[in-house]
Amino acid sequence: MVMRWLLPLLVTAILNAQVTIAKMENRISVAIDGKPFTELFYGPDVTKPYLHPLRAASGTIVTRGFPMEKIPGESTDHPHHRGLWFGHGDVNGFDFWANESSYKKDRLGRIALKSVDKIANGNESGSVETTFEWLDVPGHAILNEKRVMTFYGGKNRMIDFDITLTPIVKVVFGDTKEGTFAMRLAAGLETKEKNSRPDPPRTGVMVNSEGRSGESECWGKRADWMDYHGELAGERVGIAIFDHPDNPRHPAYWHTRAYGLFAANIFGLHDFLNDKKADGSMALEPGHPVRFRFRVVIHPGDEKDARIADLYKSYSER
Fold it and tell me: Before 36, cis peptide (omega within 30)?
């Protein structure tokens, strides 16, 4: 029983639970209840904006540190897998996915910040509105990206993404598995394989809304949501990605790998279906925008503990 004199203090503590967002040099920081949650990086040396790191409510980091940080036991493959990002491997033939400036290959696109349009703090949520330009190799903008990210506190850390792409010229998103809304998970959330490093232990389990589990059953399959959960330093934690039912070609296909890549992709049909005749490309005409919405949920326990199916149902009705 809570003593009556404590109630006003508890109410005040709840009301003062803040999502605080601050613009800094080349990045935007997000704190919840005064503790760091994540940062959005977009500086001149960044080839596509990304969030790093992502934390559970406990403070545990659930995304891989590399290449931003070197952490013992982590793999160092795919340096373009930076935290959480949105990009695609073939847009008018330009690569906005594996587009690190250190890569020695042609036709590397770049997603550059045009403006930070609005920052809002709040007791239950905070938001950031930004505009990015997708630039080809000569540096011409081929499309504009308007992105709104809304951050929520609570035992589940959540981020809503509302992304509108408006072509400036005719744009074709090509058929490739290398895309699109993605994150790279912490080493402990990888699925254990024969060649996995022993420390930290790889404990990850991937499941989807259709009841499938493991890479062999989930990779390239369609689903409303995917969840990846396991243990990090003894803490049971998971991450889910929701694909909104109003998104183009919903439900998304999933480019999910045992080594910790976790991505929703509607374009890579010839890979996902193992059919060279399949064509998942999408053409967008100038002035005709397309909208994508996703939710990321970082939660304690597995998908059943977190009631991910119920959370998705609520999200799908928004």
Answer: no
